[in-house]
Design a protein that fits this description.
313 residues; globular; single chain; 7 helices; 2 domains; seven-stranded mixed sheet; three-stranded antiparallel sheet; alpha/beta; Rossmann fold
């Protein structure tokens, strides 16, 4: 007869659509809480990211339009990223390969509504008729893990990808029915933080960064006033960068000491990464969230810890 599962005092669960999403938006947060005493972090990934573009020319044959083996390869990338972040509890929603990356149609300048392709794979994550089973699969994990805090995406899925939107929908539905859940957060990128990060990268292309800086409105962001929670992850940057580098088929990281040799401390680096679009994005030292239901409240919420206000049990 198996023994009852012993729960950590604090329990955090994150829901992400594809491998690499966890490192890009929440890597520092995962590393911070994974290293905290009596704290358990669980990552749920909804697909294998089969439809992703491939950054490495030598691996281009893995892509969906060729051998269609990218999803299996990205399992190993996600495992390496999880190890870099100190994450030990990872689940694929419904089991490995149950739902497939839906892909999306890229709409220039649009982050709120990126439609799926006209022809969807039968296992596409965003397909009609799949939602109820997906909610049930996530609810089963929540019942086992019993997290007090759940992290997902905002209603627009951060940048409009249909899988992100579906991940938001099922996260909200499953969390609403889970007795343990006290708080639900949406991972967001504040406009002010993004602008400051890009300002730090000004001139970086001339100093060896191989990508261009984005133009106005080329990167998704939210108004600063909608942000309720900022988690400081400076001490976790090395882990986050290692996790980003683990997703080599999807992105590349560029780094440079902030001062030339002999000119002073160089512990803080200029950091940026780019996807296959080769548009530079800063690696921020703070990861930001909106507490669902708190934005627009009479008393603004200003937190620095996802467990603020929770009486752990």
């Amino acid at each position: 007869m198996s023994r009852p599962r012993t729960l950590a005092r604090r329990r955090l669960l994150l829901v992400h659509a594809h491998p690499d999403d966890e490192s890009i938006t929440t890597g520092g947060t995962i590393a911070r809480y994974a290293a905290a005493p009596d704290t358990e972090v669980t990552l749920v990934t909804c697909t294998l990211g089969e439809q992703g573009e491939v950054m490495v020319p030598e691996l281009a044959g893995l892509a969906a339009e060729h051998a269609d083996q990218l999803g299996g390869y990205r399992i190993a990338e996600l495992a390496a990223a999880s190890a870099a972040l100190g994450l030990t509890d990872h689940r694929f929603l419904g089991g490995v390969g149950r739902w497939r990356d839906s892909g999306m149609v890229v709409v220039a300048g649009a982050f709120a509504a990126a439609p799926p392709p006209e022809s969807l794979h039968p296992r596409a994550f965003c397909a009609d008729g799949q939602r109820a089973e997906q909610v049930a699969a996530l609810a089963e994990i929540l019942a086992e893990v019993q997290p007090q805090v759940v992290v997902g995406y905002d209603p627009g899925g951060s940048y409009g990808h249909p899988d992100h939107v579906r991940a938001h929908e099922i996260s909200m539905a499953a969390a609403a029915a889970a007795p343990s859940v006290r708080k639900v957060y949406w991972t967001v990128q504040p406009l002010g933080d993004l602008a400051a990060g890009l300002a730090e990268l000004a001139g970086a292309p001339a100093r060896g960064m191989p990508w261009r800086l984005p133009g106005a409105d080329e990167l998704p962001s939210v108004p600063d006033e909608t942000v309720t929670t900022r988690v400081e992850v400076t001490d976790q940057l090395a882990a986050k960068v290692a996790a980003l580098r683990a997703h080599a088929t999807q992105l590349t990281v560029w780094s440079r000491p902030s001062a030339p040799e002999g000119a002073g401390p160089t512990s803080i680096e200029q950091l940026a990464f780019a996807l296959t679009n080769e548009i530079a994005m800063p690696v921020l030292r703070t990861e930001s969230y909106t507490l669902a239901g708190a934005a627009g409240s009479v008393q603004p919420v200003r937190e620095t810890d996802l467990f603020d206000g929770i009486e752990a049990w």
